[in-house]
Amino acid sequence: MVTEPTASGAHDLERVLELLEQMRVPAMVCINKADIDCVQANEIEHYCEARNTAVVGRLPYDEVVTAAMVQGEPVTSYRPQSAVSLALERVWGEVRRGLGFDGKR
After folding, report:
1. Is the CB of residue 87 less than 8 Å from the CB of residue 78?
2. Is the confidence at residue 103, as pLDDT, over 70?
3. Residue 41 pLDDT > 80
């Protein structure tokens, strides 16, 4: 589940995690644009910890994402060394580990 540190993002996350729990479906959470509201991002992390839901990472807000979209390229190809690209690589590794893979491509 990808969420953003906003009131609506937190509310939607809570609803989806409750539904997934009822369905007995495991979940992982990534906080997109985490630096737009660090307090809310921390609250989301604490909420997830209390539910034993893994937070696989935080992605920073980065205007390079928009530039990559305009060019029709994935941000990880457009600017592989940008903060958001590096964070995405770390998140992907955590997702793979969470699914039982080794974290390699």
Report:
1. no
2. no
3. yes
Helix or strand holding residue 38 (H, E): helix 38-50
Alpha-carbon distance of 75 to 84, in angstroms, equals: 8
Determine the Cα–Cα distance for residues 2 and 46; give it in Å rounded to an integer.
16
3-state DSSP call for residue 51?
coil
Residue span of the structural domain in which 54 resides: 1-61
- 43-100 pLDDT, tens digit each: 999 999 999 999 999 999 999 999 999 999 999 999 999 999 999 999 999 999 999 9
- From first CA to last CA, the distance across the chain in angstroms is 21
Structural contact between residues 31 and 55, judged by C-beta atoms closer than 8 angstroms: yes
On whether both 18 and 56 belong to a single domain, the answer is: yes
